[in-house]
Design goal:
4 domains; 27 strands; elongated; Molybdopterin biosynthesis moeA protein, domain 3; 409 residues; seven-stranded mixed β-sheet; 7 helices; 19% helix; alpha/beta
Length: 409
């Protein structure tokens, strides 16, 4: 069965599936210290080397009690103070208790810890206000993870929690997938760098800076050759060089019919290029292909279209190439604060502001003009209002699907 729609367009989901099927994870790895490994992709699955916690310890500041003293009828003698990093070193007997701090090992013979706020001290005797249940406020050895249990799977991005877990296991270095190398290509005699004054017919090159910022947030290594002028020989030479250096090449504009024909011609001469019409708004034209040494992602030229298609279409494939595991972003239902215009035919990723009303219910506002060149529709937003292809106009008060922004947006 064909994946194409009757209009000749493929859906966003079909486009993602084709991209994911066409790319493979990098296999090259490197070993980094934990300080260097933040946001890198774990190359191999890891098992726990140690029980966590390493031993029974106190969950709070208080007193460790023997089982016979939990009912509160006795006034056990305070025989020692145990700080974190110390040990009582003896067995706690009935009629004895120890002052204990959070994280300190619970003495042998102790069956519970009572928080200090629920006690009264008279000399060296401890008085309880009520009975204390066995096991109270004790973190048991291995209750978090046991030696040999799965720790982290291959493909996991190492965020702060993962780095902390590795450190808690005494792991000082880790093997990660090497950084994905992505080249950004902007072409055109009309482009000038920010800081320059554009002449007649010229514009500032915004896409390259915008896409670079997004890619750097993904943790890839960006290769930036600067603006390539409208010269076929220069373009061909540059792309051949980038193909030897990069794992992926991203272009914005110049591959659709009638736009900078030499760009499309050069890309087709170097490899296998497909131009798909994706049922997405903004960003219908989207190119994908394979060059001798790299994968190609051809984004539309309008800035909002370029960033939306990078995020919605190219990102899953780039994550997979990095060795990561892409998952569709979470969504929620929210009530529209404004009417929206929508023509059936393409899934529309309108930009919105998600808020919560005084009842704690989600409400979403449009950021206004939704043209593919209006970057302020993105800078003022914190979410996409995701309207399915068959959807038409909507009125204020109707419910819509909302996709909150996630990295790299």
């Amino acid at each position: 069965m064909s994946c194409d729609t009757p209009s000749g367009m493929i859906s966003v989901q079909q486009c993602r599936e084709r991209l994911l099927a066409a790319v493979a994870p990098l296999t090259a790895t490197e070993t980094l210290t934990l300080e260097q490994a933040t946001d890198r992709i774990l190359a191999d699955s890891l098992a726990a080397r140690l029980d966590l916690p390493l031993e029974d310890n106190s969950a709070m500041d208080g007193y460790a009690l023997h089982a016979e003293d939990l009912d509160g009828r006795n006034a056990p003698e305070i025989v020692a103070t145990v700080l974190a990093g110390q040990s009582f070193g003896e067995r706690l007997e009935a009629g004895q208790c120890v002052r204990i701090m959070t994280g300190a090992p619970v003495p042998a013979g102790a069956e519970a810890v009572v928080m200090q706020e629920r006690t009264r001290v008279d000399g060296n005797r401890l008085h309880l206000g009520e009975a204390v249940p066995a096991g109270n406020n004790i973190r048991r050895r291995g209750e978090d993870i046991r030696t040999g249990a799965p720790l982290l799977p291959a493909g996991r991005r190492l965020g702060p929690a993962e780095i902390g877990l590795l450190a808690s296991q005494g792991i000082a270095s880790v093997t990660v997938v090497r950084r994905l190398k992505v080249a950004l290509v902007s072409t055109g005699d009309e482009l000038v760098a920010p800081g320059s004054s554009p002449g007649p017919g010229q514009i500032h090159d915004s896409n390259r800076y915008m896409l670079r910022a997004a890619l750097e947030r993904l943790g890839v290594e960006v290769i930036d050759p600067g603006v390539i002028r409208d010269d076929r020989a220069e373009l061909e030479h540059t792309l051949e060089r980038l193909d030897r250096q990069a794992d992926a090449i991203i272009t914005s504009g110049g591959v659709s019919v009638g736009e900078a024909d030499h760009v499309r011609a050069v890309l087709e001469s170097l490899g296998e290029i497909h131009l798909w019409k994706v049922a997405i708004k903004p960003g219908k034209p989207f190119a994908f292909g394979r060059l001798p040494g790299s994968m190609l992602f051809g984004l539309p030229g309008n800035p909002v279209s370029a960033l939306v298609t990078l995020y919605q279409l190219a990102l899953p494939a780039l994550v997979r190439m990095q060795g990561g595991q892409w998952k569709a972003p979470p969504t929620l239902r929210a009530r529209l604060a404004d009417p929206l215009r929508k023509k059936p035919g393409r899934a529309d990723y309108q930009r919105g502001v998600l808020e919560y009303d005084d009842k704690g219910e989600p409400v979403v506002h449009s950021t206004g003009g939704q043209g593919s060149a209006i970057l302020t529709s993105l800078t003022g937003a914190n979410c996409f209002i995701v309207l399915p292809a068959e959807q038409g106009d909507l009125q204020a008060g109707e419910f819509v699907t909302v996709e909150p922004f996630a990295p790299p947006l």
